[in-house]
Amino acid sequence: MSLEQEISKRRTFGIISHPDAGKTTLTEKLLLFGGAIQEAGAVKSNKIKKGATSDFMEIERQRGISVATSVLAFTYKDHKINILDTPGHKDFAEDTFRTLTAVDSVIVVIDVAKGVEEQTEKLVEVCRMRNIPMIVFINKLDREGKDAFDLLDEVEQKLGLRVTPLSFPIGMGYDFKGIYNIWEKNINLFSGDSRKNIEETIAFDDVSSPELEELISSQSAQRLREDLELVYEVYPSFDRQAYLNGTQQPVFFGSALNNFGVRELLDCFVEIAPSPLPKASDVRIVQPNEKGFTGFVFKIHANMDPNHRDRLAFVKIVSGTFERNKPYLHTRLGKKLKFSSPNAFFAEKKEVVDISYAGDIVGLHDTGNFKIGDTLTEGEVLHFKGIPSFSPEHFRYINNADPLKSKQLEKGIDQLMDEGVAQLFTLDFNGRKVIGTVGALQYEVIQYRLEHEYGAKCSYENFPIFKACWVEEPENPKDPDYLDFLRVKQKYLARDKQGQLVFLADSAFSIEMVKQKYPQLKLHFTSEFDK
Ligand code: G4P
User: Is the pLDDT of residue 253 over 80?
Assistant: First the structure.
């Protein structure tokens, strides 16, 4: 098969949702359809259970599961599907943001009763900013929930999307009869005594036919006709290009738990979802069908086995093919590396493979060469963009609690930061180290892992910071205003791990004051900005 054909078969995507909306259940059902697993219950939830924030076993369990489910690959209708796992817990949001840099599209799962929730809003916003194609799956139709039209309005308003339903529910909750599939023009009936997993699909392109009454009762038939009339009136028809551009989002309804509406979603997904997309680098846009291999690291997993200091770097292949034992250029370090046992991922296992294609993810064993965002190529010097750090929400000084183990502490902090567990800032004026995280849970994770993996002990001290702002150095570094800013804010200036200057602002007010006093100064809320 040609490179082009291999690439066009691939669909690499992520499922995002607020915890409990049904991401794990949907993933499992997709794997069942793909024949990748044989029974329900095989996919473990990567959720951190409520109230378990101090339970280190839980943290380890979560890490263990998340390596097993990082990439779930299967074949469906001659397509190679790669599902990239995204942690739902908000304290791991940064991990999810980074994974989203490696997907070509996403499916957003929403609970029909709860509607749009906080975590969904944040994640969709990131996808929207990057124009990632999105399909919305409204789940749990077997339960009483919000009216379908109200929900579509909510999705448009809260998530800023422009939706078009490709299926529509017939009833809901106790009265749920099935779904009219607008995309395939058929009716899926939800029937049987137990109302579980029983599905009947009847081709039905003319809803005005009196047969509809016989199938779903006259009341439901009438209601469906009215609903569909409104759908066709209010919503634009599906436009694949608009979906691919990220300006239109098709919506499906179903019940993942009952296996209902999932096949319809998957069938439409493989047909419309994009194959691997071009990606911008600092020098040019790289096309997936270029012969030369390029890829970037979006995730690092370290020290799963305390006896081996192993790390697995997850690389998304952007172009060409990745081959075993071929030397590739690590463009940040400027050195060539060879990988004798690259892992490819299947449903729940990984295997050493000789060749992987653009769109695929390979797991590379690493002895400390990789950081999140690193680029590999066949020789060309380029760096992929788009893995910025966002300002953390929590900041604490980290102190060494065992003076005999300062080397271990340093190494541990360094490696955990490379893995992207949290961000490190070093204060300019006294060299103290500050750890910034998205959630408070990370501090426990870091403390626990430093102790168990590096034999180092740390303690924390509060540092009341509101936001990290990356400072763009002016064209003239001797600019008097800039020098004045550096002097006045001396105690709040730090370097991130890349050595970029960061202003750690203690309040929204102080950011405002800085902006007023130094109107020429450019502050950014992510580490990656165009000058
Ligand atoms: P998540 O990964 O998005 O966090 O959600 P997950 O799939 O774990 O689902 C959260 C809960 O919602 C689970 O119940 C799951 O069984 C249920 N669920 C998922 N899809 C549906 C659906 O279509 N209909 C209904 N009624 N429920 C659904 P749980 O009680 O929290 O867990 P479990 O004990 O059933 O595993």
Answer: yes
